[in-house]
Every structure is written in C-alpha cells, then in structure tokens.
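Batch manifest, entry 17 of 40.
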Amino acid sequence: MLFTFAIAALALLGQAVDASVLATEATNVAASFPVVDITSAKAHPNITLGHGGIHADAAQAEFPATLLLCPTTSCISCFGFDLSATPTNLCLAAGFSYSSVAINQPSNEGLPFGVFIGPPGCASFLQIPAVNTCYNINGGTFSDYAVA
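Output type: structure tokens
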C-alpha cells in the first residue's frame, strides 16, 4: 500500500516538472532584435559566438537566458520562460499559441543546448538557431517547446 502511494506521488511530481515558470507580464525586450523568418534561418547549433570565438568564461555566462514566446509577429508582447529552470528532454506546452520566438541572453555568449519549438502534440520541432534574434513563425500553430 505504501509502495503504491509512493509511485502515485512520484507520478504526480513528474507531472509538476512539466510546468514552466511563465512571466506574468508581457515584455517587448526582443522587439529591438533583428527579425528573421525561422524557415529561412540556417540550421546550426544553438550558439551565438562573441568576437574572437568562444571565451573561457562562456559557460559562466549562459544564464540569464529567457525563452520568449510571442502571440504576435516581430517579438512584441512576449511571455518569458526562464531557461535555467526549464527541464530538459521534455515536450512542454506553453498554454497559448505563439507567432514569433526569441531567446533573450544579455551576455550573447550562446547556449550549450538546443531550444526547440513545435506545433501541439510534440510530433515535430524546429530549433531556434541563435540567441538575441527574433524569429517569425509562418505556416502553422505553434504552442509547444523543448530544451535538449
């Protein structure tokens, strides 16, 4: 009986991990980023190098980094998800549909992991190619994301 309760508690805890910390207020921080259509962006690791390549302290500078999901194009009125608190290798539902995305990273050092977006159902994903760039999404409804 106690074992069954422990399994049920772990299952509920696992579901709680799927929830993300969402900023309660919309932000326009990415409205000044360059805007690109995500389908025209080249696929490459989710890294933006600084001048002179990788710096020794780059790993220390990856956070803060915020995934911005925006209901409008051109990254206006976005809702932020703290990437340092986002679980990896899980499909997460944003709870709303979005039309543009960006990763706000003040250090501009890039990330050692990929950030992916997709339509409902977790069947397919597109990688966000770089930080501090706004990507408009065309051709479908997107509402899921993942970090891997």
